[in-house]
């Protein structure tokens, strides 16, 4: 409940009412100018805020774009074939011929082509059969596709297979097209010298044959195999990548969790300002209710900042509620000050302060931190976990997990228990624990050793392989290197959360080691995009490296 509430209006005379004076005392200095009708000076050029992406919806097909600036890591931009673009302009439905790797990459890909038809060559079914054995993700996907095809084919007569099976048969209403199987031998002349027995060449032969049979109908090969697409283009056949699994095509538009307020924000939004104070989680916070044109572009739990260059107090806040053009903003706790340190760690920059506000907020159940190497993701997460497990006892223990994808060659099997097998992958946490232990200098060597043993007893290292079916209650779960997870794996992990559990996903989408995953289709990108705007989750993209001047320079020049 609000402790004090007052309404601020621009004064008509030089004398201000007591209510206005009370609010201005609590408000930042920029609010004084707003109430007095003075426009604030232009904000100093801070880190440029990324544009807020449009509301989440269906992923639109990509058209050719201008090349990205040289500074950005070049990444593959999926471009439609000219046949596909022409069909889109004329409104003609297409016939997509699927390569096996598309089905094994995304088992639900059959239902992702909207009103268009899907064609499966017999060689695709043969390759599916060859990959169905084993316990790998590819084998599981192959078996799932086989079950889906069986359900589609069951209870249909031979004519239905020849004329196409409706893809909406199993309840997928978005799939309005039909599924066709190769029911007879289709031969087409390919250039002399191409091995006829090779699976890729047989699929290319089917595409060419379909083009000849169905004149005027756009036939497009869809494959995840780059060489297959190059070969098809060289033979004059339209080919595309399967990009329906991409959350977004340009990761520069990924939600950053932070927005810089315009310089005239308080002038335009300070007319009917309301302010009050509340005690939340043992901390006093000031709240402002503002109304204006900038509010609809904000999201719940997004961080906002305004840094005037005329020496006035900067404003850092978080959006707590949005209702039309009205928003409730909350001031932040300053974790850059030593009195608010978290296990001896203080925020070194604005983004780290925002991150610690999320990590130390018990109302925030799901936190994602993105940033390049050395921005402090793991250190902040571990410090917040130790403070809330050992000091405030909000959680029982810290559970740490990560994907075991090596950067170089695999070194083979590792000896020992699950914990011992995972320990080489957890070197980053050992490094950070060493830093956190050094900050405790009061107890001497013996005291530090005892503290280290206590910390070790509260940190459990788990493998992703054994997460299925588990439920974590009152745990602080850290998922490191989450950029190497697929959206399906992220869903498996996040749904493990029981009552009182907080989940953190840390990662750098520029360092993906998993084959077939890109910046746009990574599980980390997926959860950041899907969770934005939820009142119990938060995201921060950490911008500045704080590891060392050597690491910062290496990130820039290498």
From TrEMBL:
<dbReference type="InterPro" id="IPR027417">
    <property type="entry name" value="P-loop_NTPase"/>
</dbReference>
<protein>
    <submittedName>
        <fullName>PhoH-like ATPase</fullName>
    </submittedName>
</protein>
<feature type="domain" description="PIN">
    <location>
        <begin position="94"/>
        <end position="230"/>
    </location>
</feature>
<dbReference type="Pfam" id="PF02562">
    <property type="entry name" value="PhoH"/>
</dbReference>
<dbReference type="InterPro" id="IPR002716">
    <property type="entry name" value="PIN_dom"/>
</dbReference>
<comment type="similarity">
    <text>In the N-terminal section; belongs to the PINc/VapC protein family.</text>
</comment>
<keyword id="KW-0547">Nucleotide-binding</keyword>
<comment type="similarity">
    <text>Belongs to the PhoH family.</text>
</comment>
<dbReference type="Pfam" id="PF13638">
    <property type="entry name" value="PIN_4"/>
</dbReference>
<keyword id="KW-0067">ATP-binding</keyword>
<dbReference type="InterPro" id="IPR051451">
    <property type="entry name" value="PhoH2-like"/>
</dbReference>
<dbReference type="InterPro" id="IPR029060">
    <property type="entry name" value="PIN-like_dom_sf"/>
</dbReference>
<dbReference type="InterPro" id="IPR003714">
    <property type="entry name" value="PhoH"/>
</dbReference>
């Amino acid at each position: 409940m609000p402790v004090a509430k007052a309404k601020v209006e621009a004064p008509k005379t030089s004398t201000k009412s007591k209510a206005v004076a009370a609010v201005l005392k609590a408000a930042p200095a920029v609010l004084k100018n707003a109430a007095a009708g003075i426009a604030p000076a232009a904000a100093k050029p801070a880190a440029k805020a990324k544009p807020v992406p449009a509301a989440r919806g269906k992923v639109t097909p990509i058209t050719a774009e201008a090349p990205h600036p040289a500074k950005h890591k070049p990444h593959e931009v999926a471009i439609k074939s000219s046949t596909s673009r022409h069909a889109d302009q004329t409104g003609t439905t297409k016939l997509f011929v699927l390569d096996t790797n598309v089905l094994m990459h995304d088992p639900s890909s059959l239902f992702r082509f909207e009103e268009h038809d899907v064609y499966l060559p017999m060689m695709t079914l043969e390759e599916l059969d060859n990959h169905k054995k084993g316990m790998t993700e590819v084998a599981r996907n192959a078996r799932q596709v086989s079950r889906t095809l069986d359900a589609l084919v069951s209870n249909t007569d031979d004519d239905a297979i020849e004329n196409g099976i409706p893809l909406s048969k199993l309840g997928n209403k978005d799939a309005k097209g039909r599924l066709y199987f190769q029911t007879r031998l289709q031969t087409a002349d390919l250039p002399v010298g191409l091995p006829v027995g090779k699976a890729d060449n047989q699929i290319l032969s089917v595409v060419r044959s379909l083009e000849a049979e169905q004149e005027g109908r756009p036939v497009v090969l869809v494959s995840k195999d780059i060489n297959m697409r190059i070969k098809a283009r060289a033979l004059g056949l339209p080919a595309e990548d399967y990009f329906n699994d991409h959350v977004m095509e340009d990761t520069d538009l990924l939600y950053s969790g932070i927005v810089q307020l315009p310089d005239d924000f308080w002038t335009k939004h300070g007319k009917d300002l309301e302010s009050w104070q509340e005690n939340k989680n043992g901390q006093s916070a000031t709240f402002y209710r503002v109304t204006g044109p900038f509010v609809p572009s904000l999201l719940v739990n997004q961080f906002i900042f305004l840094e005037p260059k005329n020496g006035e107090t900067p404003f850092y806040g978080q959006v707590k509620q949005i209702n039309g053009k009205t928003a409730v903003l909350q001031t932040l706790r300053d974790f850059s000050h030593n009195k608010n340190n978290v296990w001896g760690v203080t925020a070194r920059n604005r983004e780290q302060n925002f991150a610690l506000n999320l990590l130390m907020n018990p109302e925030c159940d799901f936190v994602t931190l993105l940033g390049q190497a050395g921005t402090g993701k793991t250190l902040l997460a571990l410090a917040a976990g130790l403070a809330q497990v050992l000091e405030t006892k909000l959680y029982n223990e810290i559970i740490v997990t990560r994907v075991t994808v090596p950067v170089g060659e695999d070194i083979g099997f590792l000896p020992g228990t699950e914990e011992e097998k995972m320990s080489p992958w957890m070197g980053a946490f050992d490094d950070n624990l060493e830093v956190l232990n050094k900050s405790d200098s009061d107890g001497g060597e013996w005291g530090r050793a005892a503290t280290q043993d206590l910390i070790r007893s509260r940190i459990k290292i788990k493998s992703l392989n054994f997460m299925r079916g588990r439920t974590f209650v009152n745990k602080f779960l850290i998922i490191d290197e989450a950029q190497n997870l697929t959206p399906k794996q992220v869903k498996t992990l996040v749904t493990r959360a029981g009552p009182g559990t907080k989940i953190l996903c840390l990662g750098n989408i520029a360092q993906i080691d998993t084959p077939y995953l890109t910046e746009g289709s990574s599980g980390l990108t997926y959860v950041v995009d899907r969770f934005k705007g939820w009142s119990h989750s938060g995201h921060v993209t950490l911008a500045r490296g704080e590891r060392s001047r050597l690491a910062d320079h290496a990130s820039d020049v290498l």
